[in-house]
Model the fold of this input.
Amino acid sequence: MDELVTIATRVGIVGVALIGGALFAFSAFIMAALKRLPDAEGIRAMRAINRTVHTPWFMGPFFGAALLSLGAIVMGGMNSCEPWGPVLAAAGTLYVAGVFVVTAAANVPMNKRLDVPDPDDPDAAAYWNHYLVVWTRWNHLRTLASVGSALLFVESVRLMG
Done:
């Protein structure tokens, strides 16, 4: 069982790190590049990104890391007397709460709202400028949560020794 937990944790590290890297790209330069475009073009580009993200290349690691994180919460809780148990549970909790829940509660609803207006409508431009700021702030949080989760997963493997 211990070997299975270690393997699953290492796979979790990869998934969380992949998602963290994708989220970091948005925080570091993608959103800034979209902001430089005329509003209607930026909206169209972000809509295209939001449609394109629904591929196994992104959704596999995104949901896989969430499932492994839920397992980490359970296994960490069941092994709370082990030095790695609370760290593993914290790693899973940080990903689930800081990445998965924030995505579902903040970023996805904003994406859905962005998909509604005609990009050439002046009201769409007003929402787009709001979106650029608020969506990106939530993304910064997701990025930090993913990095923190990856670090905690790594530390839990180290403690498993």
User: Anything to note?
Assistant: The radius of gyration is 18 Å.
